[in-house]
Amino acid sequence: MIVRKFSIVVSAFFSLAVCAQEMAKTDLELKPEVKLSYLDSIKSTFKKNDLAAKVDSLWMNELVSLDIYDDLTKDIQTINKDVTVDEELPTELLKQRLAAMNQKSPFEIEYNQGLENIIKSFLKNRKKSFSRLMALSEYYFPIFEDAFAKQNVPLEIKYLAVVESALNPKAVSKMGATGLWQFMYGTGKQYALKIDSYIDERSDPLKATAAASEYMTKMFNIFGDWELVLASYNSGPGNVTKAIRRSGGKTKYWDIRNYLPKETQGYVPAFLATMYLFEYHKEHGINPERAVVKNFETDTVAVKNQMSFKQLADLLDMPQSQIQLLNPSYKMGVIPFYQGEQHFIRLPKDKIATFVSNEEQIYAYVKHDAEFRTTSSRLAVKYAPKAKPAAVKPAPVDNGDFEFYKVRKGDNLGAIAAKYDVSISDIKKWNNLKTNAVAIGRSLKIKAEEEAPVKTLPAVVDKEQAIASAENKEKTAVDMDYVVVAGDNLGSIAKKFGTTIAELKELNNLTSNNIGLGKTLIISKAAVVIEEPASTAIASNSVDSFKKKAPSKNVSEDYYVKKGDSLYSISKKYPGVTISDIKKWNGIKDEDIKPGMKLKING
């Protein structure tokens, strides 16, 4: 009986062992081998850092938004200090608060009706703007205070950057003044700020603030009055000295204000009103919005080779917009490398740790990516579609070979060219147009391109040749033209074509975000050229297996968010999928996602 029980137990263990082996074998069969890209293989060797600096994407967008700058600049330039504003703030209480501010400031802050009107105007119309500005100030004010303390400049001058640029390092005035401190080109060069095709240090918070501090010190040595220093910053020292002469030799701002240019008359009061709102924001119910990233949470590292923001974003799993925010002085989305000069990149501290710990792999990837792009350019020529030979000019044809299109309201050459699948330059040539402007009601001659013959592979195709042929097809760059219409800006155009502002500026050699109506922009897109075999089942299956590497937009797939994921990093996992696609498919209004959340891809 004992022997029988023992044999049953042994048989059970044996059965379990066999079952486990079969399950393991099945499990192995169900997990196909995934071929890693060179980027993924490089990142898999990175030494991971436990720090996780979570960046609020909405706040990041806030930092690069220009709407506050536009609104505040317009207010300061057009505000009428003589118009009484109906806003609840007793005059006697305001006088007491201004007197308290005057006691602890080197500025002469005294009550006058014009200052009261401007303060009340800001309270009535700009409460929300100041709430947002106070969030930005948590990042920039420590930089300003550090630079001013070194030069013994009053720390209150930090509020001048709010008046000048609304704390936006990418702000550009109509006159071309640029950056947080709105330096003109000549003044920037005078204070040794580097300005070239790749770099504009007027947008560098550290270097531009140091230059502003140096300017303030020199002007104070001339005028001996901080209000006059501010007036000279706005209108130039020449206009201040003229006002002093016209006033009969008076040397106080409030005594010469009426002799200054009109804009400068409201400039210093706007500065003092800004200082007041920052000092007494709680009393007026202005609650600063949350600032997630602060300057002390970032650091810099010297770059030893030229690299692009895109390469850094791919390697460090962070949005390009964040790199652009922290490094606004790089105009082309590229950190250049000049012999004998050092250039630095500012990143969140956890990303700096990743960068420094893996520099060798990072530079290896940058080199590989540069070589790959060069190779791809050559392959693009080799594998370009034969339907539109660029070098061959079409022979002259009679009007009978053309069809005519009548220009309607809202049309532009870009839209018409896209409608007929022709280029803008062809339409201009066919109709003898010198510019991109077309009048409503004009009839344009259009000759559509003939379709290229469909190529097929031979009836018998070797399996390995079919796979190799499919896998060796490269992406070819197809340039598209777009004509700027009313209401367009670089942001809306980039969103429309699934690209970035930096890439548009690089393609079109733009040095600022300003674009003129009717300007033709180059829009770059990538298209995969695949020649499918016509007849054999083997070849067809081989090409199908290649296509599965890119997700089909007709097939839905679920993705579960992991810790550390962002919409940007998830979109990179699926070629051809953008952040806006994921947000549309899942009804997401912002970029706030949580671990464990199920996302639908290609729905």
Automatic annotation (TrEMBL):
<dbReference type="InterPro" id="IPR036779">
    <property type="entry name" value="LysM_dom_sf"/>
</dbReference>
<feature type="domain" description="LysM">
    <location>
        <begin position="480"/>
        <end position="523"/>
    </location>
</feature>
<protein>
    <submittedName>
        <fullName>Membrane-bound lytic murein transglycosylase D</fullName>
    </submittedName>
</protein>
<dbReference type="InterPro" id="IPR018392">
    <property type="entry name" value="LysM"/>
</dbReference>
<feature type="signal peptide">
    <location>
        <begin position="1"/>
        <end position="20"/>
    </location>
</feature>
<comment type="similarity">
    <text>Belongs to the transglycosylase Slt family.</text>
</comment>
<dbReference type="InterPro" id="IPR008258">
    <property type="entry name" value="Transglycosylase_SLT_dom_1"/>
</dbReference>
<feature type="domain" description="LysM">
    <location>
        <begin position="403"/>
        <end position="446"/>
    </location>
</feature>
<dbReference type="Pfam" id="PF01464">
    <property type="entry name" value="SLT"/>
</dbReference>
<keyword id="KW-0732">Signal</keyword>
<dbReference type="Pfam" id="PF01476">
    <property type="entry name" value="LysM"/>
</dbReference>
<dbReference type="InterPro" id="IPR000189">
    <property type="entry name" value="Transglyc_AS"/>
</dbReference>
<feature type="domain" description="LysM">
    <location>
        <begin position="557"/>
        <end position="601"/>
    </location>
</feature>
<dbReference type="InterPro" id="IPR023346">
    <property type="entry name" value="Lysozyme-like_dom_sf"/>
</dbReference>
